Amino acid sequence: METRKIQTVGSGTYTVSLPKEWAESRGVTAGDAVTLHEHVDGVLAIQEGEGGDDTAPITARIESSSPETIERTLRAAYAAGSREVVLDPDGPLTAEQRRAIDRVARGRIGMSVAVESETSMTVRILLDAEEVSVGQSLRQLSFVVRSIHRDAVDALADPAGSGDPAAFDSRGEQADRLSAMIERSAVRGAADLAEIDALGSTRSELFESWTAMRELRRVHEAATEVGAAAGRLDAPPTEARMEACREIGDAAREVVSEGVAALLGDGGVDAARSALDGRDRTRRRIEAFDRRLPKGDADASELRLVSRELRRTAERGGDIAGIALRRAIRRGETIADRESERGSAEPPGR
Question: Is residue 350 part of a domain?
Fold first, then answer.
């Protein structure tokens, strides 16, 4: 990085000289035209020539016949921001290869098969950044994940049923689609300033949204572990234990909800601090619940695993609230002392 002074010429026009090495490396000489791009995050970018072809597709090519390789590469191409993927395996496409392609296409927003023949296939991703709201996608992902989590905790009361597998799978696929779209937006925004403008965001905001998405994925993983523990129980927990699990689950999900709301601008600093306070209260309730579980009991062992995943849920919500707090500080919001609502209520877990 180097620093250059702004100068004035003529009737007050501001000018700054271009680094000679940069100009020579791109073939820019006196008299050539350059394009200036002003971006929402305050960056003024200089592009040689009179603008590139922003619509040119980023094409990936897959020449492997392995369904696993095809599936992995399709997922990676989507995340990398490719507009088109050409599959050209050695020989006719098999039923297994086509199923792998279909699985990825169904699990990614905007991805579909455009051209198909016996020996090749072209997959296109028609996702317009101007029609994508990363914030709304994050809000929706939070709702879906918390819905899965709530039902996983409720499944403890019915170990034989363990919830509706079809409903869990459907919402899990929805969470995957939303996560993949947020990741794609963040990756493209990091590589292309024009993408940031289209998304109406800044690079730091995109990175924070991507980080929050990763934390919500961990909440989803925690819900999966709770559901698995429910399936391993020999019998439903006692009424008191079940009530405690539900109350702690509600509290942990509220931390997640408040953290995401604070990150998206709903309540700002106060919402973030409320989420962090809630995380601390939930920690204490979980510790009290664990102390009341007898040792040497198989079901109690599973409930300890459940409490560990509920703690994990609250911690991830607290991490999202921490991201929101950092964003608020960066924006210059005031951090002021206020009356704490922590309290010392009697924790559940009789």
Answer: no
